[in-house]
Amino acid sequence: MSTSPILDSVTPRTQPYHHGNLRPVLVDTAVQLARLTGPDGVVLREVARRAGVSHNAAYRHFEDRAALLQEVSDRAMADLEQAMRERIDTVAIEDPVTRASERLRETGRAYVDFAIREPGLFAVAFTTSAGPRDHNSATWTGPYGVLNAVLDELVDAGALTPERRVGADVACWATVHGYAELHVHGPLQEMPAALRDEILESVLDVVHRGLMGS
Amino acid sequence: MSTSPILDSVTPRTQPYHHGNLRPVLVDTAVQLARLTGPDGVVLREVARRAGVSHNAAYRHFEDRAALLQEVSDRAMADLEQAMRERIDTVAIEDPVTRASERLRETGRAYVDFAIREPGLFAVAFTTSAGPRDHNSATWTGPYGVLNAVLDELVDAGALTPERRVGADVACWATVHGYAELHVHGPLQEMPAALRDEILESVLDVVHRGLMGS
DNA sequence: AGCTGATGTGGACACTGACAACATCACGCT
DNA sequence: AGCGTGATGTTGTCAGTGTCCACATCAGCT
Fold it and tell me: How far is the CA of B72 from the C1' of D10 (A)?
């Protein structure tokens, strides 16, 4: 049936018509783009291009561009959580009080470091936020769950009173989140890294004293 | 020369060819759009449409879409600053220490309130941030300048030691900024207003204790 | 063998930011 | 008085994007 063997050997699809594994590849590609350029860089057609597939192919796996972005956001949140867990586990201190305190500090440092190291992912993580599913701290997972667990350790160690435990999660979260935002996308972008780290320590001091007294 | 008097009486431009006052009108329109839809809503063609002018007219007054957005950002920053100043001036307390403390709290409340009340402007204000021109707190104006002034009042009143004054600005800023972000664009959007205000007070308590001891 | 549903393609449409060529007009110079 | 010149506004165009629709391909079941 071939009119020309040349066309037949050159033209035939080097890739099968059906990719077979497209969805995860699309997500990976989108994550890669998000790391480079943030939320606005996650362009449906560019993702398809890099996946070696036609534009529109993504619509078989995602409702929307927003749906794909949400997937990237979930991945970013998971990455952030893991970064926090890893850093927390590096604390090797016996005394329960100082141990819990230091673990809280590492939580904050990990949060800010992640934002600095992965600005694109950090941005995507908080652009399409479905928010905490419920207001019950116990069942919550993700970065917020990690923070809550560490704060509970402080209460168990007797370093944080139950009264001050109320709202402490939001206070900690807001502080490191704001610090990260101001440095990553905000007006403090140009601050040298050394100074940034130094001031972060003093900010963590403020939170520590505010929660547990001097 | 008119082929038809009807066309001549119907067609003539109701508006003069040159707008005469376009630039400020464009900025106003852009601000209006930003309030409704945030940074992404500031669409050059839509701004021109609402100003009753053709697309591209804006290019005679702004280099870029980014340039127009920067103008909106400046306006938003000025609005935020004014909101803070107004709220600060409502504090009517004699005792210098409690007066300065309360003025600091009002600074934070005003910041968060503005973000809640004008989410679009708040977002634009921090999207295109040129950042503090210099790291010298004295010459700085805008919201950051207001904060620094209030913190200096606390030092003058003897409530805040000079050592703890270092980095206090960033600590305060980060806390309220993070609190605002989490509530305006972030995972805490769905929190009821009453609870939001209540927790903000406890967060401000943490900052107060952290800076000035219990 | 043939059907069917899932998956991928090609083509369109409306929208956007940006550029280039042209139109209009206020103002100053001769 | 006339002219021209630069600022301002317009029209036309291009590439790029998200999304919809019709069609192509193909694996697996009947």
Answer: 25
Q: The tokens of B19 are what?
A: 């707008």
Q: Do B206 and A203 touch (CB under 8 A)?
A: no
Note the pLDDT tens digit of each residue in A161-176: 999 999 999 999 999 9
CA distance A147 to A176: 11
Q: How many residues does chain B have?
A: 214
Check if B15-62 and B74-212 are the same fold: no
Structure tokens given for B150: 């209030």
At residue B213, the pLDDT reads: 84
- Gap from A111 CA to C7 C1', Å: 40
Report pLDDT digits (tens) over B86-125: 999 999 999 999 999 999 999 999 999 999 999 999 999 9
The CATH class given to the A75-212 domain equals mainly alpha
Nearest CA in chain B to A191: B135
Top CATH class of B74-212 equals mainly alpha
Task: List the single residue in A144, A176, A206 with the smallest CB-CB distance to B211.
Answer: A206
Q: Which nucleotides of D are covered by protein (CB under 7 A)?
A: 7-13, 16-22, 25-27
A57: left (phi over 0), alpha (psi -120 to 50) or beta: alpha
Fold category of B15-62 in CATH: Arc Repressor Mutant, subunit A (1.10.10)
